[in-house]
Structure formats: C-alpha cells, structure tokens
C-alpha cells in the first residue's frame, strides 16, 4: 500500500505504525483544483489570485504553520542513506520566504474551516482519523465541492501519514530472537486489535472492519412494525472538535471509497524527529524578526541539520 511505502527507506521497511492519521489541507475544488498534489509555486499563484494580501493556512498562526509544515516536509530534504541534506536549496529558501508571510497570530475562537468557507483563505489544515471526518466535512460543505490537498512538493501528492498515539514499531539488528520479535510485531498489526486505538489501523483487514462498522445503519422497529433508520453518530468532527449540530447517518459506499482513495494517496510521513524541527524553529526566529535573510536562515539550518544527521546515520 502507498501509505506503507511512505515509511520505506532505500526500498526497505524498517518500521511502521500500528495506526495513523491523514494530514493535509482542504480547499474548494473550484479554486485549488481536484488533484491532491501541487507545487509551492502553484499554491502561491492561487493564493495571489484568490486571496491577495491574506496568504496562509486558515486557523494556524505562523509559528504553528511553520512547525506543521516542516514536520511534514523535512524528510524531503534529507537522504538518510548518504547523509546528504539540501536545506540550502532554492526550494527550501522559497518555503522559508512563504512562512514569513503567514499570520503571526489568529482568532482562536474562529473555526479553521470558517476561514475557508468565508473566502479569507484558500486552504485550511485537516487531520482525519476516520471516515467520520470526511462525512462531517460533506455536511459542512454541502453542495460546495472540496478537495484534499497535500503539502506542496515536487512530484508527490503530499498527503502525509501522521502519528497518532500508536508507536512506530521495528526490529533492531541487535535482537537476539528475531522470530519471537516478529511474532509479537505481527500480532500488534493483526486485524484483531488493529481497530482498538485512535486512528486508522495499518492492517488492511482491520481497516475494512473499521469502515464496515460505519456503513452499518442504526435501525429500530416502530409501533407500526416499520423499520426506522436513525442517526449513526450525533456530533460531527470538524477541525478535530465535536460539532453537536451535525447528525450523521451510516457512511455510504461512495464516502468509504473516497476515504480509501485518500489513504492510497498518502506518500509523505509526518516527521518525528523533534531535534530537526527544533533546529528549524530556532533558526526561523531571527528570520521572522527581520534579523536574517531567508538564504542565511536556510544555510544555518543546513549546517546544523547536516551535523546532526551525520552523527546519527549508520
């Protein structure tokens, strides 16, 4: 599966998550198009056309957006096989320049999706843990068609597999009982416990069971002997918060198919190395304050991350 291949390094899978979430952006299809992938230049051109003077990710402050963006794309600038880094590239400098244009602060009382629906921003960040999120946004958007966009990259969809409360599991080369370790890991990825946590189970069979539950209607028989279909879920999930005004019936096959398509579109992995993210944030501070150029900032990040990677590469 593509979302499994996203964790590979050099064609080999060294670790995988028991469960994951989908991370990206949502936008109106008539503005951002219907494809998941886009480049930074394409996103900037659309923002200049439809939201001039108001760039950014609806509902995220500059610092929050920078952390989120870097977490999801820094792996694109590191070759863990060779230790080479490319944070001093023109592409990364362009990303830094873009981050500087974002809102320094936001209205915490305003829902993220509202920025999008009101036309203030062209994208809003999303993190989806299950098909309920898709069903909820279907209600919120009504007749307005929307598209899930990835993080701007070159040649990828850009939709990321992000971490939930599930750990990433692997077997070390120092393991004295690899068969026993593999038996344990295989059990944790089985269909029997795959849907017991938060997020989407990595096991395909568990994922099928997970979605089948949401496709099963809640019914009861009234006093006239008639079958009545009732709500499946009271309170939709929008911006990862419960919206009590949304009432959801069982998921349709079309909704589940769309959700599987999103899962198959995942080809990035949310980075989980806080050291690299912290380095980037530290170096971005002086740039945001106007004390350093984007190029100087990129060079500083390149120097520090390259040293860190060289110390940890095998």
Describe this structure in words.
34% of the residues are buried. The strands form four sheets. Strands 2, 3, 4, 5, 7 and 12 form a six-stranded mixed beta sheet that branches. The protein has a two-stranded antiparallel ribbon with strand order 1-6. Strand 8 and strand 9 form a beta hairpin. The protein is α+β, with helices and mostly antiparallel strands. The protein has a domain of 125 residues. The longest helix has 19 residues.
List the helices and strands and how they pair.
Layout (H helix, E strand, L loop, with lengths): L1 H4 L10 E2 L1 E10 H4 L7 H11 L11 H12 L16 H10 L12 H6 L6 E5 L2 H11 L4 E4 L9 E5 L4 E2 L8 H11 L11 E2 L2 H12 L2 E4 L5 E4 L2 E6 L2 E8 L4 H12 L1 E4 L4 H15 L5 H19 L2
Parallel strand pairs: 5-12
Antiparallel strand pairs: 1-6, 2-3, 2-4, 2-5, 2-7, 8-9, 10-11
**Structural class from helices and strands?**
alpha+beta
Low-confidence stretches: none
Give the integer mean of the pLDDT values: 85
Estimate the helix proportion, in percent. Answer: 40-55%
* Biggest sheet architecture: 6 strands, mixed
What does the radius of gyration come to?
21 Å
The strand count comes to 12
Residues in β-strands, percent: 15-25%
From the N-terminal CA to the C-terminal CA, the straight-line distance is 27 Å
Number of helices: 12
């Amino acid at each position: 599966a593509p979302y499994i291949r996203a964790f590979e390094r050099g064609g080999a899978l060294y670790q995988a998550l028991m469960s994951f979430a989908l991370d990206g952006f949502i936008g109106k299809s008539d503005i951002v198009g219907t494809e998941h992938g886009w480049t930074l230049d394409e996103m900037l051109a659309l923002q200049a056309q439809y939201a001039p003077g108001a760039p950014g990710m609806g509902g995220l402050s500059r610092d929050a957006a920078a952390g989120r963006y870097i977490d999801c794309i820094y792996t694109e600038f590191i070759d863990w096989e060779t230790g080479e880094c490319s944070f001093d590239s023109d592409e990364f400098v362009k990303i830094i320049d873009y981050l500087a244009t974002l809102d320094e602060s936001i209205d915490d009382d305003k829902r993220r999706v509202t920025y999008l629906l009101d036309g203030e921003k062209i994208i809003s960040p999303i993190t989806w843990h299950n098909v309920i999120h898709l069903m909820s946004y279907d209600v919120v958007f009504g007749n307005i068609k929307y598209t899930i966009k990835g993080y701007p990259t070159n040649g990828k969809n850009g939709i990321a597999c992000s971490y939930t409360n599930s750990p990433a599991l692997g077997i070390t080369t120092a393991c004295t009982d690899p068969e026993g370790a593999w038996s344990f890991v295989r059990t944790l990825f089985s269909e029997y416990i795959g849907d017991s946590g938060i997020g989407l189970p990595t096991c395909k069979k568990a994922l099928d069971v997970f979605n089948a539950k949401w496709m099963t209607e809640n019914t009861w028989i009234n006093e006239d002997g008639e079958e009545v279909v009732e709500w499946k879920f009271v309170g939709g999930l929008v911006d990862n918060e419960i919206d009590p005004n949304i009432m959801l019936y069982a998921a349709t096959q079309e909704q589940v198919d769309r959700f599987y398509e999103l899962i198959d579109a995942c080809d990035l992995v949310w980075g989980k190395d806080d050291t690299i993210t912290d380095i980037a944030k530290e170096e971005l501070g002086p740039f945001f304050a106007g004390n350093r150029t984007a190029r100087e900032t990129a060079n500083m990040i390149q120097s520090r991350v390259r040293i860190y990677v060289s110390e940890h590469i095998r």
